[in-house]
Amino acid sequence: MKLFSKEQIYQGDKLTTERQKITSTDLMERAGIQIFNWIHTRMQGAQVPIHVFCGIGNNGGDGLVLARHLVTHGYNVVTYIVNCSDKRSKDFLINYDRIKNVSKEWPKMLSCKNDFSEVIIKEEDIIVDAVFGIGLNRPPNDWVKALFEQFRISKAFTLSIDIPSGLYTDKSVADEKDVVNANYTLSFQSPKLVFFLPETAKYTVQWEVLDIGIDREYLINTDTEVELISKNEVLPLYKPRQKFSHKGDFGHVLILGGSYGKIGAVNLASRSALSSGAGLVTAYIPKCGYHSLQTSIPEVMVVTDGDETHIANISFDIEPTVIGVGVGLGTSARTAKTFETFLKSNKAPLVIDADGINLLSKKKALLKLLPEQTIITPHPKELERLIGKWSNDFEKLEKVKDFSKKYNVIVLIKGANSITVYQDKFYINTTGNPGMATAGSGDVLTGIISGLIAQGYEHLSATIFAVYLHGKSADIVLEDYGYQSLIASHIIDGVGKAYMDLFKQPEQPKEVEQKEETPQ
């Protein structure tokens, strides 16, 4: 799914009114009706008090359309105008007049100076936040911040329209009190990038997209900087197997890593490479791990370094399709030296994780030795060592994008919504859960990425697909283990089910059996 920027949304609105020969007021009516339909489907006329807070711009206009339809359908509605400026949008004024014609009680004007005696919200009520939209360009004033605090104090369910008020689409927030904490956000046409970033995702617990009929040609043909990755996006990437294929058709993964006490990382990466579909997997490890690895994974071949406890002299006579390097590797001086020597002679595609990233961070000149489209998979601290500190998530993304372009590498920022970055594009993953915050989870991901590349997946596609499978597997096995008891090995066990889930059809609603009554 494409995530449109603020500027692209404005352009889409403009083109839609021109091509569909409608006014901006008509488009606002369409948006407001979609919000009403969403609420009406769930509430079915229930007389729960609904407090609709409208700003005086177009987001407030959407709120007024909603409030009008709620009133005409008999809901218990109180409408407020957060009247903090003399600048009102044209469409707001039109809809302000319309609601006055249908409502017995006109919207309550909040002057942004008086107290909150008129605003009485109970915990069992509903708040609709339509104060600020995507056009906000400065922090709200103290009175509005106090209003948002009233929302929080009430503990009422809060529904934000398009974006939680006070949240920007393209920059960070200076003060948490500037933003509405929404239980749910209804976003027009596409979600916003800020719904997925660590610093700003907390402002909406859940979100949903409403289709308001923006011009289809514009939506299809407009390239976006950000894409959201779900099953619909990864299914076309899948490569089916032919009946007469053999293991040689699916590549040879070399997992290069391990040190005394950290052979388990290689075990996990090797197993996950096999489970993702690699034809052959060889592990290159210190001598100390030979027996444990041969015993625990009989399907994996093992080559040992001359050193007993660390990798000190990388030498092998196989020709791997891809090399996953860094898991459990260690950063000793001898390992650092042999890692540099290896990079100078290596021609195979690389997936670099863990201590491989740390060694690159210690000597950044090595970055120039990486093959094109090398995949680097840092967690936040590893990323910081690699690109330096950042002040907010937007700066982080820009720094990673610059890093990717400078070295022509793919960077996977691991986290709750892992983001794959290549050149000017961001790909945000939608699978996964907090149970994945456990030792070895990253090693498993390295193996899956390597396994997909071995099978012939293009590097960027392999990364996007692997992150999706990794998270989906964890979501599937979560049902058996829960967050706290989920471990990395469980994720490997679920990879097969994650593949099969790609082709699972959505459950159809069960038909209610109609029984004929026997005449009495």
From TrEMBL:
Listed cofactors: K(+); Mg(2+)
Cofactor binding note from Swiss-Prot or TrEMBL: Binds 1 potassium ion per subunit.
Residues annotated to bind AMP: 414-418, 442
Residues at which (6S)-NADPHX binds: 58-62, 133-139, 162, 265, 328, 379, 443
Pfam family, one: YjeF_N
Alphabetized InterPro entries for the sequence: Carbohydrate_kinase_pred_CS, CARKD, Nnr, Ribokinase-like, YjeF_N_dom, YjeF_N_dom_sf
Boundaries of every YjeF C-terminal domain copy: 230-502
Limits of the YjeF N-terminal domain: 9-220
Binding site for K(+): 59, 129, 165
EC number assigned by the record: 4.2.1.136, 5.1.99.6
Role description: Bifunctional enzyme that catalyzes the epimerization of the S- and R-forms of NAD(P)HX and the dehydration of the S-form of NAD(P)HX at the expense of ADP, which is converted to AMP. This allows the repair of both epimers of NAD(P)HX, a damaged form of NAD(P)H that is a result of enzymatic or heat-dependent hydration. Catalyzes the dehydration of the S-form of NAD(P)HX at the expense of ADP, which is converted to AMP. Together with NAD(P)HX epimerase, which catalyzes the epimerization of the S- and R-forms, the enzyme allows the repair of both epimers of NAD(P)HX, a damaged form of NAD(P)H that is a result of enzymatic or heat-dependent hydration.
Name of the protein described by the UniProt record: Bifunctional NAD(P)H-hydrate repair enzyme
Upper lineage: Bacteria, Pseudomonadati, Bacteroidota, Flavobacteriia, Flavobacteriales
